[in-house]
Amino acid sequence: MDIWRLLFFVPLFSYAVARRNDLYAGYTVHGVHLQDRSDLSVLYDLELKLGLDFWQRGAPGQRDAHIMVSQEKRKEFLDTLDRNGIEHYLHFSNVQNVLDKHDKDVEFWRSRRNSRSFPFEDYLRYTEIDAYLDRIAAQYPEVVTLVNAGLSYEGRNVKYLKISTTNFTDTSKPIYFMNAMIHAREWVTTPVAMYSIYRLVEEVRSNERDLLDSTDWIIMPLVNPDGYEYSHTDDRLWRRTRSYNPAVSETCYGVDGNRNFNVSFNTIGVSSDPCSNIYPGVSPFSEVEMGYVRDVLHEYVDRMQVYLDIHSQGNYVLFAYGDDTLPPNAVELHHVGSVMGAAIDVQKLPEALYYIVGNSAFLMYGTSGTAQDYGQLIGVPFAYTIELPGHGYGHVVPPQYIEQMVEETWQGIVASARVSAIYYQNRN
């Protein structure tokens, strides 16, 4: 492509990306102070009635909720909060402008990248992530095995890496499984998974050699490639998968992948509206991509010690169950989760929130069909959802924060791997 064609293409690309944000003209984001669980009930009812979009789930008395609402639904939303005595404030007055600014930040960030830039320092597209996994497997065959789990609904490969010094043959070693990007708009999650690959394969430091010697790793950095690509090309805030079932809806695509697992399916924290961001689908594992996560969990459950489902945002480390019950090892779950959160907090930015650790339903809201709960149910001792920081930006974290976030989260992963390994020794 010659320079004149390039100069012509870039403005057209920027214009096309900006136009996708027209979807959110008139939308606002509101912060909501939560005093007790009755406030959560009000918000849940409003979520189902008005189709609200939660950018951050709040914890009563500890953390505000951030909720996006359309211009048409805003009055009813705010009036209902006022009638119930729930305090609120305007967080973003114009979501379209926020998204336009984010696109410019990302474009500028990419313009500064060079051949020495690391892949985890940017919001890469699907083909770039796929190429990175291929390269790592080809370059480090003695410790890395590339597995193609299968095709997504739209035909993209869903791959993961197995990282082991013993080719997964040493049954005395626990397995740590992490995945990212079940929710398509949570772009900052995949860089965390890719940075973990980097530190375990390309940049193994002497004080972390034990992580390879004593643990086997499985990392799936892009569970929902179809939704992720759609969030780049058509709708930056797209959350769901991209499957199509005209028998259910001829206009709405996809389901919430993190409500699609076979644990208390379609009971709590879901919507029957197929256009909703919390629609669970017609049946457990209707989404082929979630089936790939399930298959990894089942194949290695005998040795799997930690399952970490990476999400954004809110600064939480959460564990099962979403139905207000606790697993038998809840104390140990809280212990390992607290170690993870504390290790991250040591590295956090001064203005960042501290991590809150606890049962997902007790802290915030009830859910069903989540990956975390499914992992716990089938026998993974330590199954977690981590909600990364949003730094006030919600799902559109500027790329300038990526380096900080991947490093601090890696420290939490390291700490949780080490302390959970002690429990694994006792387990065996």
TrEMBL record:
Query: Can the keyword Magnesium be found in this entry's annotation?
Result: no
The cofactors it requires, by name, are:
Zn(2+)
Coiled-coil ranges from the UniProt annotation: none
One of the protein's GO biological processes: proteolysis
Organism of origin is: Papilio xuthus
Q: Which Pfam families match?
A: Peptidase_M14, Propep_M14
This entry carries the following GO cellular component terms, namely:
extracellular space
Q: Which residues form the Peptidase M14 domain?
A: 122-420
What are the GO MF terms of this UniProt record?
metallocarboxypeptidase activity; zinc ion binding
> Which keywords are on file for this protein?
Carboxypeptidase, Disulfide bond, Hydrolase, Metal-binding, Metalloprotease, Protease, Signal, Zinc
User: Where in the sequence is the active site?
Assistant: E387 (proton donor/acceptor)
Q: Which domain of life is it from?
A: Eukaryota
Signal peptide feature range:
1-18
- What is the name of this protein? Carboxypeptidase B-like
Q: Which InterPro entries match?
A: M14A-like_propep (IPR036990), M14A_act_pep (IPR003146), Peptidase_M14 (IPR000834)
Determine if tRNA-binding is one of this entry's keywords.
Answer: no
User: What protein family is recorded?
Assistant: Belongs to the peptidase M14 family.
